[in-house]
Amino acid sequence: MFPELRPYLEERWEQAEPGETFFIPRYRDAKQNLRTTFTKIVKRAGLQPWPKLFQNLRASRQTELEEIFPSHVVCAWMGNSQQVALRHYLQVTDDHFAKATADQCGKIVASKASQDPANEKCVTRNTAISSNVSQGDACAAVPLGLEPTTRCW
What we know:
Layout: H1 6-15, H2 34-44, H3 53-66, H4 71-78, H5 82-89, H6 94-115, H7 125-130, H8 135-141
Helix pairs in contact: 3-4, 6-8
């Protein structure tokens, strides 16, 4: 059980009638279309349903868990193989991109500052953040050689 679910599961446990067999008894009928029901719930929440509702939820969770645990462990928990995870579930997120560009900007800025400490335009990532200069501005201010300067990558 994932810790994020615990409060919801405990609340449901407290609401259960004595002798109740199933945790969620409402959807036990095999003829029940869960995707249709889920789509209605998403719309009632004021959101636009996304394609492949259940697959995308599964893909999001697989991607989140892979950030913390080794792939073979996550695949065992999720009940799929690493090949299936790579093909169908693992995603590149905006956070991955942001982390990669922030890390690269910091390395470039720090590298240029260490090469020419007198260069006032070269600031470390921590200095840029603490002085309210965005990382993009810090990266753009660093002379990068023959290539035209860009705002990070």
